[in-house]
Structures are given as structure tokens and as C-alpha cells.
Amino acid sequence: MPSLLRPPSPGTAAGPLTGWGLCAGIGLLVFAASLLGIVTRPLGFMAAFWPANALLLGLLVRYPRLAASGTWAAATLGYVAADLVTGTAPLATLWLASANLCGVAMGWWLFGQVPVATRFLKRQMSAVLMFGICVASSAAAALAGSGTGPLLFNTTWLTALGMWFCTELINSVLILPVILSLPTPQEARRTLKKRRWSRRRWKYAAPLLALAASEAAAIAIGGPGALAFPVPALLWCALTYGVFATSVLSMLTCFGLAIAAGAGMLELAFAPNQAWAVFSLRVGISLLGLGPLSVATAKAASVEAMRRLHRVASHDFLTDALARRAFMAQGSKLLARLARERSSVAVLMLDLDHFKRVNDTHGHAQGDKVLHGFAATVSEALRPGDLFGRLGGEEFAVVLPRIRQADAMAVARRLCKQVRNHPFAVPGQRDPLHATVSIGLVVCTGVSLQDSLGALMSDADAALYEAKAAGRDRVQLHEPQQAPGR
């Protein structure tokens, strides 16, 4: 563990996420979460809800740059301050804080031993591995802190060990997934964009309604089996929503069940003040929350694998442009949509000039680098909705939807200029290699159902040959032939 003498300053190896202000924020978060846990300590019992350790561990794992000396020191002060202001003796306060930090440090170290994708719940076995880490970190904290049971909570060491362990386990299993799967702003926008809320709102609302109904039924009917009532609805949520949403719903549902059981609302077969009955309840609820999370992570991993497989099948491996078949399929669909809108479209055919000379002079490996750099240059110049594909060899095509002729010409000329000015490094040579591109362009101002992508590409290809015949490194616009007598 790094030195606890001072917090790292911004710009150090720990990165911009560190500094005195951030360390103070971590300390205040731990202090507030610890106070919340202390409030839940019944007379003669340990805390029923202790979110501080799970929150701290989740932040350290999710944002690795936080795991610096200042953060650990601030967290220690937060634990100590919370116990001191509630009247705990100084020696016991240090013991409790050390036990909490022991559990967090164990979980932090174990998470560091697994791959990043697994750590952030993006693999099929992520939930199971996370559960194992939660068990180990909960056991470490319980072993370190259970000795305070006879001194502070008027209970035996074995009872304190069990209570500490199950409380740590239920909090870490339910809170950690929410933090680890928290989407970035870009991921959140992408997810919301994919949802067709107006057309399929019922599809996304039905699992939530089922979950609320099952929770109400559990409280109304009660009995030992009531804990399992929400399981089908939670599994439905796991199959409908993402990992983050499932984590949030599981956390709220399971904590709700724990609170209802503690308040006697479920009418379970044991009294909620029996220590080992409470142990069984909390461990059982922890396992209840693990099931939907496992389903959600497995589904997310499967969807990601299918997405990668589809991308490999639809994209050219060298240039990352659309492969010919995928380009024709997506372009035809786009053209049909533009026909319904009566919108305009421009089709460009691009061909690298004298590319055979590059292969003959510098070798095919260098030619591949030129193709890759050329494709990257073109992709950067296009809009998100434009299509870019490799038809074969050094021949490429672009579809620009909803664009005027003047703007399409401007795009094509800009592509020529950017390719012309792009330097391609050649190993062993001081001077870079430069390439040029010839472009044939056709613009259809009002797409109709009779227009086809193949016909437009044929017209653009004819213009491309005119551009090459006129000297290359230029844009040639296809001019429709006039009917005889006009």
C-alpha cells in the first residue's frame, strides 16, 4: 500500500483524479456512510446495514487512480470520525476502522488479480468471481473485527464473526455491482438511443410492473417462501435490461426484503433478533441478488460476442471499412429509406492512383499500410450516418445520404486533398510516401423506388474512369446523358 503521509497532488502518477479536494470527498463519503451504518446498530447487535466498505471498495476498483495514499488516509479518518462522534472509545474505534480497511484492502487486491473486463462485469463468469471476492473480503473484515463483539456488542466472538461476515457480504454483493457496472456518459447515451420507447414502451415497463407486484405479494402473503417471490421478475429484468439496471433493481429489491424481514412484515418462521437466523437470512438474500446479476452478465457477454462476430463478418479486416456484401446490403436499405423520404443521395467511387506501383516498389506490407491509412483518413472525414466500404483491392465506395450536389463535391474534393497531404511512413526511408486518389461522383437529388445502389455505383464508376483519364487525383461528376433530340 502507498505511503499514507500525504495525498498525491494533481498531475502526479496517480493522475488528475487525485488531490486534496478529492481525498476530502472520499473521507466525507466514508464518514456519512459509516454514520448511516452506525444508526442501524440495534441494542446488543452489530450494524444491520454497513455500506461504507462496499462504496469505498467499488470506487477504488472502478477508478484505479483513486487507490493512492491520500485516499486510504482520508477513508481511515472517515471511519474513525464516525465512531468517535457517536461515542465509541478511541481504542475500539481504531480496531473497528482497521477491520473495515482490512476487508476493503483484501477486496481491492483480489480485484486487481482479475482481468479488467471481468472486473467490470463484462464476462460470463464475472458475477461468480465477484461473489468469491466478496466472500474473501467479508471474511477478512470479520476475522479482523469480530474480537470487538464481546467488548462492544455484548455477544460472543463466534456470533460477532457471523454477523460481521453476513453484513459485509450482503452489502458488497448488492452495492458493488451498481458501482462496477455504472455506464459512462457515452454508454448511457448509446443505450438510450437504441431504445424505441415510443413503440415498445410496454416491453420495458412490464418487468418493472412484475417486480413491483411480486414484492407486494411477498409482503402481503409472507412466510419463508416470500423471499423467492421476486426471483422470476428479477430474471425477467435481467433478460430485458442491462447489467447496471439489473444491479440497481436487485439491490433495491433485496434490501427491501431484508428491511421487511427485519421489521417482521414477512412473518418468517424465526424471530429477527436471533443471531444465526439473521445470518441465514442475510446470506440467503445475498445469493438471491447473485442470480439475476449472473444472468445479466452472461447475456451482456453473449451480446458483445455476437456484436464482435457480426463486425468481423461485415467489416474488412485490413481497413475496417464495410466489406463489399455488407456495404451493398446496408446501402440498399439506406437507399430504400431515402426513397420513402424523397431525399437526396450522393455515391462516390474512390480508387488509389498507381497503387500497383506502391506494391511493386515498396512491397505488399507497405501497400497494406497505405490502404489502412487511406481508409482511416476517409473515415475521419465522413459523417456518422455515411457509409464507407471496400469493394476490393484499392477500390472503395462511399454513400452520402441527404446531401446537396455542391456539398457532395466539397466532400469529395476535401478527401482528395487530405489523401494527397497525408504522409505514409516507409521503414528505412527518410522521406514519407504520398498517395493520391481519383473519385467518381454521382448525385441523385430525389431518390425514387426505381433507383438502385448498383446503378448509381455504375454511374459513379464511369465518372471515376473519366477522372483517371483526365490525369488522376481529381473529382469527376457524372453528367446524365441527354435523350436524342433534346
Structure in words:
This protein is an alpha+beta fold and 486 residues long. It has helices spanning 20-39, 52-62, 69-85, 90-111, 116-119, 126-145, 149-152, 157-180, 185-194, 197-221, 231-240, 243-262, 275-314, 324-341, 355-362, 364-381, 405-421, 453-469; strands at 345-352, 387-392, 395-401, 437-444, 475-477. Strands 2-3-1-4-5 form a 5-stranded mixed β-sheet. Strand 4 (437-444), helix 18 (453-469) and strand 5 form a beta-alpha-beta unit. Helix 2 (52-62) packs across helix 8. The relative contact order is 0.07. Mean pLDDT is 86; it is low at 1-18 and 482-486.
Reconstruct the topology from this structure:
Blueprint: H1 20-39, H2 52-62, H3 69-85, H4 90-111, H5 116-119, H6 126-145, H7 149-152, H8 157-180, H9 185-194, H10 197-221, H11 231-240, H12 243-262, H13 275-314, H14 324-341, E1 345-352, H15 355-362, H16 364-381, E2 387-392, E3 395-401, H17 405-421, E4 437-444, H18 453-469, E5 475-477
Parallel strand pairs: 4-5
Antiparallel strand pairs: 1-3, 1-4, 2-3
